[in-house]
Amino acid sequence: MAHISVTVDGTSYQGEVEPRKLLVHWLREDIGRVGTVVGCDTSNCGACTVLLNGRSVKSCSVLAVQADGCEVTTIQGLADGNDWHPVQTAFKECHGLQCGYCTPGMVMAAVDLLSENPTPSESEIREGLEGNLCRCTGYHNIVKSVAYAADLMSAGPTKGAK
Amino acid sequence: MTAALETDTALGKPIRRKEDAHLLHGQTNWTDNIQLPGTVHMAILRSPMAHAKITKLDVSGALKQPGVVAAYGAKELGDLNGGVPCVWPVTDDIKMPAFPALAIDKVRQVGDCVAVVLATSVAAAVDALDSIVVSYDQLPAVTDMEAALESGSALVHDEIETNACYVYKMPCGDYEASRAKADVVVARRFINQRLIPTFMEPRSVVAAPMGMSDEITIWSSTQIPHVLRVLLALVTGIPENNLRVVAPDVGGGFGGKLQCYREEILVTNLAKKLGRPVKWTETRSENMVATHHGRDQIQDIEIAATKDGKILGLKVTLLANMGAYLQIITPGVPLLGMFMYPAIYKMDSYDFTCTGVFTNKTPTDAYRGAGRPESTYAIERIVDELAAEIGMEPMELRKKNWIKHEEFPFTTVAGLTYDTGNYEAATEKALAMFDYDGLRAEQAQRRAAGDPVQLGIGISTFTEMCGLAPSRTLGALKYVAGGWEHCTVRALPTGKIEVVTGTSPHGQGHETAWSQIASSILGVPVEDIEVIHSDTGRAPYGMDTYGSRSLAVGGQAIKAASERLVEKARVIAAHQLECSASDLEFVNGSFQVKGDPSKSQALGAVAFEAFTAHNLPPGVEPTLQAEATIDPEDFSYPHGTHLAALEVDTETGQVKLRKYVCVDDVGMQVNPMIVEGQVHGGVAQGIAQALFEGAEYDDDGNLLTASLADYLIPSAADLPSFETGSTVTPSTTHPLGTKGVGEAGAIASTPAIINGIVDALRHLGVTDVAMPASPQTVWRTIQAAKGGAK
Amino acid sequence: MIPVEFDYVKVTSIEQALAALKSGGEDSKIISGGQSLLPVLRLRMAEPSVLVDCGGIDEMLGVRDDGDSITIGAATTHHGVMSNPLVQKHALLLAQATATVADPAIRHRGTTGGALAHADPAGDIPAAALALDTSFVIAGPGGRRTVAAKDFFLDYFTTAVGPDEILVSFSIPKCDWGSNYSKFNRTAQAWAIVGVAAVVNVQGGVIKEARIGLTNMAPTAVRASTVEAALVGAASPADITAAAMHAADGTRATSDLHAKADYREHLARVITARAVRAASGI
Ligand SMILES: Cc1cc2nc3c(=O)[nH]c(=O)nc-3n(C[C@H](O)[C@H](O)[C@H](O)COP(=O)(O)OP(=O)(O)OC[C@H]3O[C@@H](n4cnc5c(N)ncnc54)[C@H](O)[C@@H]3O)c2cc1C
Ligand code: FES
Ligand code: FES
Fold first, then answer.
1. Domain boundaries, chain C
2. How does strand B133-138 pair with strand B52-58?
């Protein structure tokens, strides 16, 4: 067992983990952050995407021990109190989700994409999301959502609709 | 039917979804999120072989491992090893071999369950699988359907002495006579390849004895909590009234979660046996082999026509791969397609034969469209081939043969009566959006220039039959259940409304759309309506969600129940307002005395009166609720025209989809935003069948595409945006004028893509290309047409 | 799935890493970004007893200017490499190849050195490294040594880095030639069926020299030396196409689910021509 200390969505958590424990399993099983989900075992689907020290990673492809001392942001920590993150607002507005299973990862990947490229073209959005699979939407509205989020973010801080 | 959807109600508006808030904040309730105290986790030892005798199985070693609570093979499990049910024995002489949850003596597919371990953590359960001793005597695997039917083939099930599960025939008219009259007969063999549903949320099930009663609650990532409850009761012997099935948030299904799976049976039985919660969540690797697959048909199709393009008759001979066992509706899937081969076309005769075949592969069952994508693919492909054969523009050939809008209702050669449709309107709109003529001109230019990148235009003018289904029809087809749907609407004393539905959404936005329907009738804001679903404890009656049935059938029940509620409320309101019920009109959620709007009572106030029951009219019972159980009058028949423009790089074989236009007619739209989303997702899945996906096996029956690294589902970067449009020809057999939309896109798009590829390459001598049209396949097809190396 | 149990050691120096590898014995393994290793462990296709995490060794992180060459720490992430100005200026091909690896999230974790040490024949980085005449610094119990690109990739998933050694960094001679990495795959996130890494020195519209690396045409990435020779003097698209006809010469393409060997060979010819044309502007 190894001792780790990780800040998740602004709260600091300590724990003893087996070195083999994946970050996503630690989030889900040990600290009850079940918003982040698992969709595969080959690092392909992206459903588990979180921000690790501000950059997107697949939390199924990081060991919990490797996150020791890091900051993790999940879908559950994205909103600022009652104010939705613009990406969340945009996904609702543009119907960028159906079953919602890919959504935690898709939204986090989109947040990362926009932090690197605030004004992406359609093809930049599509390529930026290549590691996140969605089976429901055909991506059309996801792409629209990200473009709309870019607009919202460039228009300054928004108060998202709830 | 009612008049057009009123614009002053919520109906027909692109209202943003109620479902989204929790999903966008990770405040979700997926089955795998459930962590009950005392839970034991189940891990499954699966067969690595497609066909083998189990010569030895000893689970005792697992029992000695840390954290292990129990371990079972079929022998240890005894009577608790339930059999997976099939509810669609399509013929009287169908062969229905047993499908035990844990294999007994023999395994018949890679992924068959051989033993289970239950332990206090997932890791401990998985670790202990290594301590189970098992040996196999490998048997020859049956992987090829035609070889399977030859005498002397190895048998998947020795006891039934054949690999033929059933033969189903439906002769309509005299095909031989049509053929004799025909100037042209075009025959093709199409392979509708095996697909894996690949919903994003892996299956998960938790069963827990609830302590204070005999109830066992089962949370499952399923599309069919109600049907599952009945089936689990039948299979496990646990009284149905002691079972509660809940489908919490469910991450997609596409037919793949329309099932009573062996793991659901095991978890339920073991929770009861061990007296504590049992949980199992599949890994994606398990999902690829153990969740049912779809499609997998060999389609021999022959079309007879005159030389000027009048279709006379159609003959279809199918081999349908059942896989190793029959699951819930495995044998019936091809029959759902059977009715639709004639599609939108008029003809004199149609001859259908289907042979179901057992192989040592994962069982097949419903996958988005179930039978209808296969039929639509075959007919839309062969119509293109007929057009090429007689030198007619493919759209012209379609126009010549399709049912004209003034000819509806129209009874097809297959015996279905399509209520309404307007193929002309949808096609005209699609062509206008597409720039058909411009693209044809570009195509001619590229051909003339010998451009290595050729342009193709693919057409699919599809219709389908959905909204499953009139119970009588299901009965006639030997399906062992009905196709009705239920709704209860309750007006609560606080003015809120509960709509209790038997549909079970997993991405379709029922909470929003059903609220819109109820709101439009009750005059209550959408926000004040709560849709209760997917829990047999709270929504006891239902037939669940599949076959694009939820709105087409369930929507009718909501409408009827809401209207009945208004009628009950009217009697109470009349009593309060001291007038006769017929003097009241119901406007914007309020009963008003005709001619005196100052005298009125809102629905909420009526609900409160019904709750206190202090002053109800004689004979009226307290509480304000109404229910309706609706059996649909008929299937519904959405249709549309899909057009694809794609570039084929003849040097590499790579296909790039440049433009995709579709105009769908799904009748009245309750929420056009959701309709569009359904079309997008369906179209993407259909494109994926055409270009990317295919479950590949080797000759030993090993699944080669057993992970998302090898089974290629497209990402955003692999698809274009879609240009969608719609026409609205209301259904006359469905009171809301709606049809289904869940499967339409997936049914329509596959042939559009393949027709487009063949169109791009036809001048090179290409007349067909196999699916998935991978670069290698397309390149080899071009080489073969050129007479080069195959 | 869940990996089998193992121990985990995080080290901060090469010496610690070597010591940890030694004390862990045969079954110990370096973990860098983990983007190849963790999927393998999850599927239980490997069962190491100790993982030695080299992500905290300063010397293995970042890119530095060494005058005639740039040196890249082996544990620098794909994202760190492709967005680094020195790489973009002096080894653009590496940035181009790295940008095609997997997806953004994997590029945030996965490391270029890890990809080189892993030496997947379908990986995109080795072909670029070959074309750029990269040299590799390997530390082992006996000290450090430098290995040239041509001696680094030995076989399927096998490099000159021994089980008790570590790849510390790699150096690329500055290269301002035209460059292109063309990757042919079925879906955006998929591995290359064939990839072609090309750097081309064009003067006055004529190719003076070219170096071409091929992905997935043999058990390791390989140089297309016949094409390179044939390209010298090429001045037209037709010249390039003719030279590229040799792209499969001497390769050992294999067959798999997505491509049979003959198709791979064909693709190598077509894609080589395209990559060279893009790199050369001819
Ligand atoms: C879904 C997916 C898609 C991918 N697609 C591509 C792709 O298209 N192209 C591509 O090139 N790659 C692809 N990759 C792999 C990716 O590039 C990895 O990042 C890379 O192969 C390995 O780097 P890593 O740092 O993650 O190495 P690790 O996973 O940490 O290690 C890989 C192996 O190298 C050894 N190793 C690592 N570093 C060292 C070192 N410094 N010294 C000695 N040994 C070392 C490890 O012991 C291990 O055996 C993909 C990965 C995934 C999961
Ligand atoms: S769970 Fe699929 S990428 Fe992490
Ligand atoms: S919304 Fe269902 S997988 Fe994306």
1. 7-53, 58-172, 179-280
2. antiparallel
> Are B449 and B520 members of one domain?
no
Inform me whether the pLDDT recorded for A72 exceeds 70: yes
Which spans in A15-121 are helix H?
Answer: 23-25, 86-93, 103-116
CATH topology of domain A2-76: Ubiquitin-like (UB roll) (3.10.20)
Q: What angle do CA B586, B590, B594 make, to 5 degrees?
A: 50
- Six-digit token string for B526: 């959408």
Chain A partners within 8 Å of B674 (Cβ):
95
Give the domain range for residue B95: 34-139+201-251+257-290
Q: Does B67 contact chain C (CB < 8 Å)?
A: no
Bridge partners, B549 (sequence order): none
- Tokens 């300590």 belong to A14
In this structure, what token pair is assigned to residue B266? Answer: 């095991």
Helices then strands, counting H and E runs in chain A, come out as: 5, 5
CATH topology of domain A86-154: DNA polymerase; domain 1 (1.10.150)
> Are B362 and B454 in the same domain?
yes
Q: Which element (helix H / strand E) includes B338?
A: helix B333-338
Give every CB contact of residue A151 below 8 A, 6+ residues apart in sequence.
none
CATH number of C179-280: 3.30.390.50
pLDDT at B353 over 90: yes
Look at residue B393 in the predicted model and tell me its pLDDT.
96
What sign does the dihedral B35-B39-B45-B51 (CA atoms) show?
A: negative
Report yes or no on whether pTM surpasses 0.95. Answer: yes
Size of interface A-C (CB pairs under 8 A): 84
CATH class of C7-53: alpha beta
State chain A's maximal CA–CA distance in angstroms: 48
* Cβ–Cβ contact C6 with A under 8 A: yes
Instruction: Using the atom order of ligand 3, give the atom closest to the CA of residue B200.
Output: 3
Which parts of chain A fold into alpha helices (H)? 23-25, 86-93, 103-116, 122-128, 140-154
Q: Residue B293: what are its φ and ψ, rounded to 5°?
A: -100, 180
A99-141 pLDDT, tens digit per residue, is: 999 999 999 999 999 999 999 999 999 999 999 999 999 999 9
H or E, element range at B586: strand B584-587
User: Domain C58-172 carries which CATH code?
Assistant: 3.30.465.10
What spacing in Å lies between the alpha carbon of B742 and ligand 3's midpoint?
14
The torsion of the CA quartet B576, B578, B583, B586, rounded to 10 degrees, works out to -20
Q: Cα separation of A35 and A9, whole Å?
A: 12
In ligand 1, which atom is closest to the CA atom of C77?
A: 25
User: What tens digit of pLDDT does each residue of B560-600 get?
Assistant: 999 999 999 999 999 999 999 999 999 999 999 999 989 99
pLDDT in tens, B264-287: 999 999 999 999 999 999 999 999
Intervals of CATH 1.10.150.120 along chain A: 86-154
| CATH code assigned at B492 | 3.30.365.10
